[in-house]
Amino acid sequence: MTSKKLVNSVAGCADDTLAGLVACDPNLQLLQGHRVALRSDLDSLKGRVALLSGGGSGHEPAHAGFIGKGMLTGVIAGAVFTSPAVGSILAAIRAVAQAGTVGTLLIVKNYTGDRLNFGLAREQARAEGIPVEMVVIGDDSAFTVLKKAGRRGLCGTVLIHKVAGALAEAGVGLEEITKRVSTVAKAMGTLGVSLSSCSVPGSKPTFELSADEVELGLGIHGEAGVHRIKMATADEIVRLMLDHMTNTSNASHVPVQPGSSVVMMVNNLGGLSFLELGIIADAAVRSLEGHGVKIARALVGTFMSALEMPGFSLTLLLVDEPLLKLIDAETTAAAWPNVAKVYVTGRKRSRAAPTEPQEAPGSTTAGGSASKQMALVLERVCTTLLGLEEHLNALDRAAGDGDCGTTHSRAARAIQGWLKEGPPPASPAQLLSKLSILLLEKMGGSSGALYGLFLTAAAQPLKAKTDLPAWSAAMDAGLEAMQKYGKAAPGDRTMLDSLWAAGQELQAWKSPGADLFQALTKAVKEGERPEGLPL
Does this entry carry the keyword 4Fe-4S (predicted)? Predict the structure, then answer.
């Protein structure tokens, strides 16, 4: 069965995606009659070296996302996972040459079709008198014994685009750029892993994996890797990958040693969530730094994908300060990330938690009669709630998920445990604030949040006064906070209804000479059965 894809047609999807990118980016233009995207300011490149790259579509944002000042001059796109046509490559070379550039460097990933087609276009352009050089990038660190075809070109190619682009922007000549990027490419390695395959539009998945397997060392077109390993944690998979990439017995290893400085790329192959990508990046940083490797820059995102493949690749590039300056050089390429120009390793990654506000003197004084009364009341409330646990759960099962009693019992036990640590504070405001924090941390669920809101808001009017009008105002403040953030109103058949009914009776406390217990007794009765609502 073929996979579902949001395309207009299988045949036209490569043209459509390039057209969409150009339509949304005024800095790009299409070359008429060809699947080629170029900088829209080609005339500004007179006297400089042009940089062209490309390959099959399906690796977005590579390659067109890296067109811009300080990176590529243009790209030539083939159909999905297919090398671009020789005629289009040659047309791109002619276009940049006729714009006044002094030479063109072709940056090509090491795949047979790309080598042949770019190579043939290069020879034809040279025959026309156009200075053209070509570098073939092979950064795959999967194979421990090198094959005749050499290492495959993977995500590390994007770093070559960046280095070459910075050199070209600085006015360096074609021969020197070719020499320098060829040297850089030898100090780089990439390894990929995937949880499952991808599928070319109109086709079935390129390979099958069992539910408990992952493919290690695969290519960006779904080519087979070097191992199929059992599913493991992100830490374990990243550690395995880095060990493989840096093992000196591996003919394609990256010569990373303790004390080395590297640029690290964590590249989404298309189908991983940002959540997973962050976990992988954290694992890679911890593993590298644990081996004494200094991470100079860390690039995390999607740079060279394989359609919707749920996997990632890691790239390591050994760097020194001159090379870092080229990596840090400005670029307008849309897909190049805004990377901080400082070392990742050695940076402080956390700051101290804020200090708790100092409590007013005497606010937590223990042992007074008010404190003892509060403790007795709280203990009585907790005991009652614990005795009603099953009853409340049964009531809740009729209308909800049946955990009301369990949730309130959890709160009651937390309060009992807190009371065992010492007497509660004498200040009502402090008492409500402490209970708020306790319920937010221990009660859980929406009930814990709502009670926390209620108590936090109710504590505020009691900071200045603790007379009966202040307690009525505290009730009003708590109810207002619950309505504001919980979005419930009286009559919605929520926990607010009982509290609201009780709060209306406590309005009597705002009148001079109000009777404390008379209003409180009415509030309790109304809270048990809000007017107009069934029990």
Answer: no
